[in-house]
Amino acid sequence: MKKSINITIMTMCGLILAGSALAEGNSSNGKKIYSKSECLRCHQTNQLFTRKDRKVKTLPQLNSQVRKCDTQLNTHLFHDEIEDVVAYLNQAHYKFPVKKNNNKTTKEKTNKESTDG
C-alpha cells in the first residue's frame, strides 16, 4: 500500500513538472545518459518507441514516462538529465512538436547578472 502511494505521489509530481515540459534538454547528452543507464534493461529495441499502439502520445507524457522509469529504476537522474533524455527520445523517435521558450532560463539570467556587476 505504501509503495503504491509513493508511486502515485511521484507520478503526480512528474505530471506537474511535465506540464511545463519544453524538451529544451541537450539531446546529445540525453543519448549518452540513455545508452549508459538502466534504460536498456527494458527498452532494448527501438520498436517500443515506434509501434502503432505506443502509450506515449505527447511530449508531457514522454516527460512523465521518463520520470516514472527513473523512479522505478532508482537511477536518481537530476532534472536536467531527465530533460536531456526526453529531448533525445523526442528527437530520435517521437518527433513531437517542441514549444520554444523565449524567456531566458534562470541560469542564463544568473550568469549575465554576475558578469554585469
Strand-helix topology:
Layout lengths: L1 H17 L8 H10 L2 H4 L4 H4 L8 H15 L5 H16 L11 H11 L1
Helix pairs in contact: 1-5, 2-6, 5-6
Can you tag this structure with a few keywords?
117 residues; 7 helices; globular; disordered C terminus
Quick take:
About 65% of the residues lie in helices and about 0% in strands. By secondary structure, it is mainly alpha-helical.
Describe this structure in words.
This protein is mainly α and 117 residues long. 66% of the residues lie in helices and 0% in strands. The chain has one domain. It has 7 helices and no strands.
Instruction: Write the H/E string, N to C.
Output: HHHHHHH
Q: How many domains is the backbone divided into?
A: 1
Contiguous helical run count: 7
Question: How many strands?
Answer: 0
Percentage of residues in DSSP E strands: under 5%
Shape: globular
Supply Rg.
16 Å
The helix/strand class is: mainly alpha
Helix content: 55-70%
Distance between the termini: 53 Å
Reported for the largest beta sheet, the result is:
none
